Amino acid sequence: MTVLDTPRETPAPNPAPPSPATSAQRLKIRVRSSGSVTVVSVAGRLDWATCPALAAQLETVHERATAVAVDLRGVLECDALGVSVLVAAHAGCAVAGVPFAVVAPARPVRRVLQQIGIETLFTITESAGDAAADR
To answer: What is the largest CA-CA distance in the chain?
Structure first.
């Protein structure tokens, strides 16, 4: 009797979660001063993999700012976790008495804020200079 060895299909491995390097490529964060406002510019995707990096930047920004503006014009995608990071930053600024504004949210961010029903929580402006004027 001859036994033939038949090749078996092996299931594809589950994709690994993005590494921190991959996450960094998906989100760019730049912190700068514009007059009396600390501007945190964000570009890329705000999701479970990238939100921790933004949360870390926003966690203490109010400690060294007279006003905080988070510029979201470059955000391509935002999920509920991204919104929660913004809410936490807003709350931290409110406790510290530091004005907080969202600057020029891209359409995906605006849509999520409206769907959740909290777009009125934030001061939304079109430029960081407007954020300073709203103080």
So the answer is: 88
Write down the pTM of the prediction. 0.78
pLDDT at 128: 79
Alpha helices in 1-135 (DSSP H): 20-26, 51-59, 80-96, 107-116, 128-133
Residue 93 structure tokens: 């600024």
**Could you tell me the two tokens for 72?**
């979201």
Q: How far apart are CA 33 and CA 38, in angstroms?
A: 5
Residue-wise pLDDT tens digits, 61-78: 988 899 999 999 999 999
What's the rounded Cα separation, in Å, for the pair 131 and 98?
11
Write the DSSP symbol of residue 66. S
Token duo for residue 64: 């060294």
What Cα–Cα distance (Å) separates residue 100 from each residue in 15, 48, 51, 67? 38, 23, 18, 6
Cβ atoms of residues 75 and 43 within 8 Å: yes
